[in-house]
Amino acid sequence: MVDGQPFIPPSAVDVDLSAVGWAMSRTMSDFETGMWRMEEVRPELRTPIVAVDVLDRAPDWPRLVRAHEWASHIVPRIRMRAVEPAFGLGNPVWSVDPEFDLDYHLRRVRLPEPGTLDHALRLCRHLATEPFDKARPPWAAMLIEGLDDGRAVYVVKTHHSMTDGMGGIAMMTLLHSRRPEPTPDKPDREPAPPEHVTDLTVAGRELLDEVRRTPSRLAGLLSGSARVALAAVTRPFEATGEVLGYANSLRRVVAPPAATGSPLLRARGLGRWFGVLEVGLHELRLAAHAAGGSVNDAYVAALLGGFRRYHEELGVPVGKVPMGMPISMRASSDGSAGNHFAAVRFAGPATEPDAALRIRRIRAIVLALREEPAVDIVEAASPLLVRLPTRLIAEWYLAQSKGLDLQASNVAGVPVPVFLSGARIERVFPFAPAPGCAVMATMVSHVGTCCIGVNLDTAAVTEPALFMRCLQAGLDEVLALGGDVTQQPEGAQR
After folding, report:
1. Which of 2, 151, 310, 332 is buried deepest, with most CB atoms within 10 A?
2. What sign does the dihedral 171-19-370-222 (CA atoms) show?
3. pTM, 2 dp
4. Grouped pLDDT means (10 residues each) for the chain, 494 residues
5. How far apart are CA 243 and CA 235, in angstroms?
6. Is 446 assigned a catalytic role?
């Protein structure tokens, strides 16, 4: 998420089986339940997380299959499907699919000649837009061979209810190795045994669990607005400032950004288009440092510069861009499973033509939003929201997200060379879901290169190739702040 620290992948022999946290909770959280169910009534709210590895060559296929089989032993969630309780009595429960079939989830295709990365990205886009079969574990992977330069592409798609972006990166690293040769002595265990669980069984279990979860849910609510309200009753004079502060924070967090969406980007649909950009992490860090910001600030400033250029190219004045940004709430003790983030919204200063000033304005906005006491209000309120009719919640969420022209995410990546079944991973492009927004951009750093995946709603961005050229121009504008990279010392901090 925002300004994540580099993720050092463990080697296969370093995997601690007792520390793998993907099966710690069998029940979806209220927040995850909302994501799982809303897309049933509004397909625009589908939330696939897609990661694309660009490989220097095709990996060894039998070895790749064995790696996936091994990963499904280490992470039982890979073999699990979500079982809905009968009559909606509770949240879905993860259960080992009694008919788990790796061949269904892992595919292999070859591009017709001449194959290019653009052709591979089209396949990745089609994979991303295919709805999950919810009777099976909600993930899919594909190896794409036949690129004319000898490279290959590996793409994996997971449902957002399984994990967030950082958790997805952690899951993928199980398939990665720090060396091209096989690792014969890596730890293993027996796969989780199949479970024959019915919706009635889950409903009965969930009714009991609902009683057990009530105290923790109340405690969760007390961490936010209810805690402040309690303080107002028990310590009225002392708590006046705290109550007013939280109320103002809640207003700032809940209120839509003070910006009107662009008339160019107003439409929304189901069509998607994948574009990629890349830039050296060192170069982006130097530019950010020169302007007094972070790498994330420079990245967002480049995106907004691209938005301004796109509007100029099409002869439409640009205003401030209503945008959202996820902020990681993961603690060091959190496992890879689940979702641990909050979302902030603000008016992106695309009207600022000076890239350095734009970076500084973004930095001030984001730092202030991260300190908002009510920043996690949606997660805190999810126990109440998830019990409302699904259609009502879906319509409300879609109305909120349609008001955003841009969402931007920054996920910590891998700083050291890694391999996938013998093939070296050259780039990792992330494509986060774009439920209702016009543009979703996600950046992951990989061995010194910032890889940016851009997921466009084609009903909103009707000229995707032009839009990507404008984003590249915005990125070049920001990089120019760093001057001649060959003359700059290392030293700016992310």
Report:
1. 310
2. positive
3. 0.84
4. 49 50 72 91 92 97 96 92 90 95 97 94 95 95 96 95 72 83 87 92 76 57 50 52 53 66 93 96 97 96 98 95 77 48 84 97 90 62 76 88 93 90 96 93 95 97 98 98 59 32
5. 11
6. no
